[in-house]
Design a protein that fits this description.
196 residues; 0% strand; mainly alpha; Serine Threonine Protein Phosphatase 5, Tetratricopeptide repeat; 77% helix; 2 domains
Length: 196
């Protein structure tokens, strides 16, 4: 027998023994509830860690598949990335789970506009959001304005934008005012400004 071979074999067995003795943490069951994963995802989104946020939201969905909040946040995550078709699917799932979620309905309508698909249904969704009301109602009027605008109904678009401006806090009324100005100028002309 070759003594070098024996030395290598002994060293290999000793190394395996050390690795086997090293402390390992194996998580067999995730102890965090869905709410904690959802909150963690929001933190990741604040930091711009999109993949980590998506993973945390997927875990929240696995833990509580009938809870609409992680689906809504997943839609928001996709919207922030410009993934409008994915956002639409996430918001649609949230609406299927809770048809009384006005924010979900509004965001579903907005993502339908942005994805370029199902625009005909956007009116119904934003109208349902407006009927449900809530503290974010001014945002629903803003979405309704863009829905009307993409249909070519300038009068309705400007009326909805006026309602959005009336209810918006100062920080957002400036942006809505810019949208209203753009709509007003375009509606005064012959061509509609393409929605992007």
């Amino acid at each position: 027998m070759n003594p070098t071979w024996i030395r290598w074999a002994a060293w290999g067995l000793w190394s395996l023994g050390l690795v086997g003795c090293a402390p390992h943490v194996i998580v067999l069951h995730d102890p965090l509830p869905a709410e904690a994963h959802n909150d963690l995802a929001l933190r990741y989104m604040e930091e711009g860690a999109w993949k980590a946020a998506e993973r945390a939201l997927r875990r929240a969905i696995r833990k509580a598949p009938t809870w609409p909040v992680p689906y809504m946040n997943l839609g928001f995550l996709y919207a922030r990335q410009g993934r409008w078709e994915d956002a639409f699917r996430a918001y649609a799932r949230a609406v299927r789970l809770d048809g009384t979620c006005a924010d979900c309905l509004n965001n579903l309508a907005w993502s339908a506009l942005r994805s370029g698909r199902r625009r005909s249904l956007a009116t119904a969704w934003v109208r349902r959001a407006l009927a449900l009301g809530g503290p974010e109602r001014f945002r629903y009027h803003h979405t309704a304005a863009w829905v009307a605008y993409t249909r070519g109904d300038c009068a309705a678009a400007l009326q909805e934008m006026a309602a959005a401006l009336a209810g918006a806090p100062p920080a957002e009324s400036f942006l809505y005012g810019m949208d209203a100005d753009r709509m007003g100028h375009v509606c005064a002309g012959s061509d509609l400004y393409p929605f992007r």
